[in-house]
């Protein structure tokens, strides 16, 4: 379906690091993908897979292979619910680049962000779409961030910069009168503290009474 079966594509179902290392050294590979680093183990180290000693030693060996054999090595790691790399932080400190691949399961859009890059900027992003044929570059990225419907109340269009890329975004807001208790302040995709600051500015500078409204 993805049309990705190639003669020079090699797959190995293995978590024993010495076996993986021997396979990498047996051929002149252009690139290598490890999925995932937390599941690999070396029998020479007396600790469980995913421990600091296991991750540190295997990552060091991968770095040595990348430099001595001129191989681009991609190490995939697990992500916690908070959005950080699971396990010991030593992995982030050792590698040359840290990339986050984000996406909403209900949408085709995928975003590649760089949080660490020893050889270039970290402000740029890559936008992709998940199609039937696989992952493709999103050429008209701005159209993915806002609806093309007629203007409506509570909706506004803005332009933001992500690196050197200008994106058109749609901001939606809903304000309703609070019937009882303290008003609620909820935001999706916007920092709640920033939302409270904007509400305070609207009340102070524009004299819009929002102290009795849910936002």
Automatic annotation (TrEMBL):
GO terms for molecular function: ATP binding; ATP-dependent DNA damage sensor activity; DNA binding. GO terms for biological process: recombinational repair. Residues 1-79 form the RecA family profile domain. InterPro entries: P-loop_NTPase, RecA_ATP-bd, Ribosomal_Su5_D2-typ_SF. GO terms for cellular component: cytosol. This is DNA repair protein RadA. It comes from Helicobacter pylori (Campylobacter pylori).
